[in-house]
Design goal:
Blueprint lengths: L1 H13 L4 H19 L3 H9 L22 H7 L11 H4 L5
Length: 98
């Protein structure tokens, strides 16, 4: 509930801004997302491979094009441990049920 309120507040604060005003906000939000992604083994390795030392080194939104699209084949090939935080309990994240 609180997250929804924060998202609505942020949307309200930004919906009338032009592109030049939004770009710094977009970069900041992307850096936050990449900071979280860097804790996941797959994305941590991927960032090193594409030369993104840290989320702070992101120069533009265009840097995202260096990230490959995540497919089922990648998930199957890499295994579930590559996509879960090291401290996570895999039994609660994955199940055999469809």
């Amino acid at each position: 509930m609180m997250q929804n309120l924060l998202a609505m507040r942020q949307l309200h604060m930004t919906y009338r801004k032009n592109r030049d005003e939004l770009d710094p906000l977009r970069k900041s939000m992307l850096r936050q997302l990449l900071s979280y992604a860097a804790t996941v083994p797959y994305y941590s390795k991927l960032m090193k491979q594409i030369g993104l030392d840290s989320p702070a080194s992101l120069s533009s939104i265009e840097d995202l094009r260096h990230f490959p699209i995540l497919t089922k084949d990648i998930l199957k090939t890499r295994g579930e441990k590559e996509f879960v935080l090291p401290c996570a309990d895999l039994n609660t994240c994955f199940s055999d049920a469809t």
